[in-house]
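Subject: for your reference before the review

Hello V.,

The reviewers asked for a structural picture of the protein, and I figured it would be easier to keep everything in one thread rather than splitting it across files. Below is the amino acid sequence we used in the manuscript, unchanged from the supplementary table.
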Amino acid sequence: MRSTRRRTKRAPSGGIALLIGFALTILIAIGVLDPDWLPTDSPAPAGIHDYELMFPADRYPETGSHIAAAIGKGSSATCTIDRQGADRNRDLSLRGIPTRKGLDRDEWPMAMCAEGGEGASIAYISPSDNRGAGSWVSNQLSDYPDGTIVLFTIEGEIDLQNVVFATD
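And here is what came back from the structure prediction:
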């Protein structure tokens, strides 16, 4: 499995990230703020990560296809590990999404990611694929502390046409 580890500075994300970035740039430019200071407790912007996880879509095709489709629709490709926030994120992301007999509601970004929660992409997939993928990811990331930024890269065949989204 290929992976890259790189410690980087982190910046805020979300709807106000651009405004904050602009303000910080001006404050640094006029000498009010030290350029080495950046907040570190928010999800990372795209392109910044500590570890790259090669997700095996051949092994978990429904989950891999959902992740790829969600990223293609604008969801984050990174996951800032936040195990403490997983239950709350799951509650927020699945609120109002009906269950379907024989299917799981898969979340991207995952509940264990700071980027997850309200507004996450939800797709209906088979329980074996969803739970197998969740167990695999949990095992791969078990040695990494909260705050680690993981870039998910999908490896293998994906089928974007058959992803059944519960949300758009």
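For the response letter, the relevant points are probably these. The first strand starts at residue 51 and ends at 56. DSSP finds four helices and six strands in the chain.

Happy to draft the paragraph if you're swamped.

O.
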